[in-house]
Each structure stands twice: as C-alpha cells, then as structure tokens.
Amino acid sequence: MTFPNPDKGPFEGENNDWARHVAAGFVAGVTGPMLDAPGCDPAHAAIAHFQGFICCAYEDAQRRGDGKQIMDDILDQVRPWILGLANGEATVIEKDKAGPILTALPGGKEEDR
Predict the structure, then answer these.
(1) Alpha carbon of 29 to those of 18, 45, 85, 96: distances in Å?
(2) How far is CA 7 from the centre of its chain?
(3) What pTM value is reported for the model?
(4) Nearest by Cα to 73 from 14, 23, 1, 12
(5) pLDDT tens-digit series, residues 12-37
(6) Cβ–Cβ contacts within 10 Å for residue 11, how many?
(7) How far is 66 from 52, CA to CA, in rounded Å?
(8) What does the alpha-carbon distance between residue 84 and residue 36 come to, in Å, rounded to a whole number?
(9) How far is Cα 102 from Cα 1, in angstroms, rounded to an integer?
(10) Contacts of 43 (CB under 8 A, 6+ apart)
C-alpha cells in the first residue's frame, strides 16, 4: 500500500486503500480503547465520533473546497452507511478472535551490521 497520492482524490485508487487503512487504525486505536474504558457510555462515544466526523469533514472542505459544505465525495462515502442504519438494513458482523491488522510498507533503513 502506498501513501496518499496528491494527484488523485481521497477515495481514488490507492488513496481509497489508504483511507480504509486509516479507518481501521482509528477503530483499533481510538474506538476500541474508548469503549473498553471504565465508565464509557457507548451512546456518548457514538455522538463524540460523529461530532469528530463533522469537524474533520469541514476541515477537509476548507482545504479542498470553499469551506461552506462537506465535499460530495465524503458524503458519497457515508450516505450508504447512514441510510442503511436509518432504514434497518445495516448489518453488524462480529468475529471471535479477530487477528491483528498488519500493514507492510516497503522500504525503510537497512539494519546496521
């Protein structure tokens, strides 16, 4: 997987792979620990994450657009999820003993010998 390509949109080609990688890392590194924290109310966490989405989407709108409207490509990504949740068509899949997420990136430094 490559790092984001500035010549493509955020969800085009390898940039879409990177977006999925970032999302998986967020769930593993932020959402999971938040839900595991003593006293965490999942409803509060859900609202906090959604407010975070809005902040990030408007920051993106400032950088790529006029800052007044969330970009269409982001809305296109989340619209099916929101509609599925709203009409009861969303599905949750739970896995027992889910393995770790490992992303191998080529390159790096040769070890000193």
Answers:
(1) 16, 14, 24, 19
(2) 21
(3) 0.72
(4) 12
(5) 989 999 999 999 999 999 999 999 99
(6) 15
(7) 20
(8) 26
(9) 11
(10) none
Kindly provide the b/e burial profile for residues 35-68, where b requires at least 16 CB atoms within 10 angstroms of the residue's own CB.
eeeeeeeeeeeeeeeeeeeeeebbebbeeeeeee
Structure-block tokens of residue 101: 């997420």
* Distance, CA of 76 to CA of 82 (rounded, Å): 10
Task: For 67-103, write each residue's pLDDT tens digit.
Answer: 999 999 999 999 988 988 888 887 766 666 655 555 5
**Distance of alpha carbon 77 from alpha carbon 7, whole angstroms:** 20
State the Cα–Cα distance between residues 4 and 10, nearest whole angstrom: 8
